[in-house]
Design a protein that fits this description.
The complex is a heterodimer of chains A (241) and B (554).
Chain A lengths: L3 E12 L2 E13 L4 E5 L6 H8 L7 E6 L2 E2 L5 H10 L1 E4 L11 H9 L6 H14 L15 H13 L5 E5 L7 H18 L2 E6 L2 H5 L3 E6 L2 E5 L3 H4 L10
Parallel strand pairs in A: 3-8, 3-9, 6-7, 7-8
Antiparallel strand pairs in A: 1-2, 1-4, 4-5, 9-10
Chain B lengths: L1 H12 L1 H35 L2 H4 L4 E5 L17 H4 L16 E8 L6 E2 H6 L6 E18 L4 E6 L3 E3 L9 H13 L7 H8 L9 H6 L1 H7 L2 H4 L4 E3 L3 E6 L8 E10 L14 E4 L7 E5 H6 L7 E4 L2 E9 L10 E4 H7 L5 E2 L1 E6 L5 H11 L3 E5 H6 L1 E2 L1 H37 L2 H9 L4 H37 L2 E9 L2 E2 L2 E2 L2 E9 L6 H28 L2 H6 L3
Parallel strand pairs in B: 9-14, 11-13
Antiparallel strand pairs in B: 1-16, 1-17, 2-4, 3-15, 4-9, 4-16, 5-8, 6-7, 10-13, 11-14, 12-13, 18-19, 19-22, 20-21
Helix pairs in contact in B: 1-2, 1-17, 2-15, 2-17, 2-18, 6-9, 15-18, 17-18
The chains are: A alpha/beta (241), B alpha+beta (554).
Amino acid sequence: MSQYELTGVGKAFNRGPLVINALQSVDLSIEPGQFVALEGPSGSGKTTLLQLLGALDRPSSGHVLFEGRNLAELRDGELAELRLRSFGFVFQQFNLIPTLTALENVQAKLAPAGYSTVGSRQRAEGMLAEVGLADRAGHLPSHLSGGEQQRVAIARALSVEPRVVLADEPTGNLDTGTGAEIVEILATLAAERGATVIVATHDTGLAGRAPRRIAMRDGRLVATDADAQTVGLAAVSSPRS
Amino acid sequence: MFYLRYLRAELLRRRGRTILTLLGLAVGVALVIAISSLSKGLDDAQSATLDPLAGIGTDLTVTRTAQDTGGGGPFGGGGRDVVEANRAVVTDLSKLGKAGTQFVHDFFLPGTQLTFTEAQAKEIAAVEGVAAVSAGLTLQAVHQEGKVPKIVASIQTGGDRIDVNRAITPPTAAEQEAIRACLAKLGVELPNQGQGRGQAGPGGGLGGQGGERAANPRAFAQCLPERMQRFRATITTPRETLQQVLDPPQTDIKSESYTIGGVELGDPSMGLVTSAQVSAGRFLKGGREALVSATYAARKSLKVGSELDLNGTTFTVVGLVNPPLGGQGVDVYLPLARLQTLSDQKGLVNVVLVRATDSASVGAVEQRIETAYAQAEVASAKQVAGRISGSLVDAANLSHSLGLALSIVADVAAFLLAALLALSSVGKRVRELGTLKALGWTQRKVVRQVAAESLAQGVLGGVLGVVLGVGVALLVGLFGPTLTASSTTGGGSLLGVEQAARTTSEAVSLTAPVGVAILLAGFGLAVVGGLLAGAAGALRAARLRPADALRTVE
C-alpha cells in the first residue's frame, strides 16, 4: 500500500470575490521512504500540496489518504497527533520560536510527544549533535546563521522519528553552498530513518538530487517521474551514509 | 518542565513587550486602587464629620425660635419673646460705673434661640421614644471693656400741651328743657317753636335760638349743661426722664463676641459638650470650671489651667474641646447653673439635646416633638449634615458623582488595556502559534500556553499595580490635601446687634485607605482581563488552520 494516495485533489482559496484554484485534480501516490521533489515556479501549488500532505490543511475536493486514512475525515486532534508523530516540517523561513534556544526549539517538538524534561533534553542534544550544532545548543535563533537555523529545524523535524519529512523551500533563504549542505543533511538523516522526504522547491539543483521529481504548473501536476521511484534514495546518498 | 520554561522565555526574552504589558496593567490596576481608595477616604471622612450629633451622643436637638403665633406646650404662648430675652442689649452703660472709669463686662444674650424653663425642657423626656434629654444654655456673649462713656444724655420728655378738638354730642331733650328753663329764669324770652322756625333757618330745636344767644351770650353760656361748658380740654402728658446712651463706642470700649454654653453635668456622654470631645485636660466636674474650644483657646492664648474672668467670677480652664461639626459648638463651656447665674437666666435653658431609644425611632420622636410643641425647632443629624459645606463636601460630592464613573472608567481601561495588550501580543505571534500547530501541538495546548503567559503577566502586572496603587494611596495619606468641612449657624441682626455667625470648621486630612477588597478587585481585574483576553486571542489564533497561520506575514 502506498504511503500517500491522492485522487482528484483540489484546493481553492477565496480571495474576496475571486476564487483561486491553487490545486486542481491532483492524482498522486507516494511510497514510504521515497525522496520526492515537487518542482515548479512560484504559485504553481507546491506549498499547497505540501500542506495537504502534511495535514496542515484540508483539500477542497478529492481525497488525501495517508497510510490508508482519509485526512479530510480526521478530527483536528487526530490531525495534530499525525503532525506530531508522523510528520516533520522544515520551512523556508526556518520557523524557529525566537524566544527559545536551539535546544528548546527541538524540545518544543518533543514535549507534546510525551518526552520527559530530561528525556527531551537528551534527545534534543543528540539531534543537535547529529546536525553538527552540539556547541550551539544554548543559542537563540537570532544568534545563529541561516544555515544553522535550518539545521536546528531539521533536528526538530526528525527528533520524533517521523515517517515523513516535508520541506518547503528549505534552501530558499540560504546561499548555494549552505543550501547544498542542508539538503545533504536532510537527505542523509531521513534515509537513515527510512523516512519519506517530500521537498517543494524551485531550485533545480536541489530537485535534481531527488530520485523522483514531480513538476507542477498552475496547480496541476505536469509530469511524474515514475521511473525514479525505483531508484529511491540511493541516488542521493550522502557521503555520511 | 518545558512549558514553564517556554513561558518564562516568552516573558524574559520579549522584555520590551513584557515590560510594556506589565506597566499598562500596573497603571490600570493602580488607577483602580487609587481611585477606589480615594473615594473610600472621602466617604469615610464625610461620614465621620457629617455625623456630628452622634459625636455628642445626641439624635436630635430641640430649640425654640421666635415666632409671632403662640402655641401650646412649654415653648408656646406669651412668655419671653426676642425683645424681652435680649433686653440686656439696651443696658445703660452708665450703670457700670462713673463716666471715665475702666470697666470689663460680658453681656449674655440668648439671640434668636429663645429660652424656656428647665422644667419645661424636662417635659420632653416624657415624649414616647425619648431615652434621655440634656438641657443646655447657649448664649451669644459680648465682652466689652474700656472706659464708661461720658456722653450719657439726659432727655426730658413730656410737659407738652396738646389741644384737643372734639365733636360735642347735641343736647338731649332733657338738656334742652333745662336750658330753656334756665334762660327763662334769667329773663331771656324764648320764642315758640313755631315762630322761630321761619327766622332761625334749618337749625331747628335750640338752633333756632341763634338770635337770642347773640343778644345775651353770657346767659346762654351759663345755661349750657356742665359737659358742654368744658368740652375744650387741655391734656398735659406726664413728665418722665429717660437716660439714653448716645453712640456708645465713642470711647475706647472694645467689643468682642463669643459664644458660651451652659452644660448639664449629669451625663458626660451627652450634652452641649461631651467628654469625648475633650482634646486636652479633662471634662467639667462642676464649680468654677470652664472648657474652651481649641480654636477659641488658640485665639485667646488659653490653655488648661488658664483663668477666665467673667463679670467678676473667675473660672479655671480645665480642658480644651473640639466642637462637633455642625453641632452646638460654642467657645466657652461652663456648668449650666453657673452660666444661668452669670447671665441672669436662672432656671432657663434654650436647647434640649434628645437621645432616642434607638436610631430607628429618631424620625418618629422628631415628629412627636414638633407636633407637641409648635415653637420647637427640632434638628436631626441629617439636617445638621445638610448645613455642612466646604472642600470636603465638595470633594465628597465630586467623589460621589464622579468617583463611581471614574472607577468604572479605570476598571474598563485596565481591563481593555490588559485585553488589548494580550490580543496584540497574540496577534504578533500567529505565525509562531501556527508553527506550534505544525509541530503537532493541539489547539488546547496552544491556548493553554498563551493563556498561562497572559495569566502570568496579569499576576505580575496586578502585583506591580497593587504596589503602585498602595504607594499612591500612601502618598495621598502623607502629602494629600487637607479638606475642610464648615458649618455656619446664626448670623444676621437682632435688635440692631449683630449676631456673630458661628462657623465651625473641621479640617480633615485626606487619606486613601486601601481595603483588601479594593486590592483584590484591582488585582483580579488585571488577572481576569489578561487571562480572558489572552485566551480569546490564543483561541482565535489556534483556530486558524496551521496552513493559514503559517502564511501570516509577521
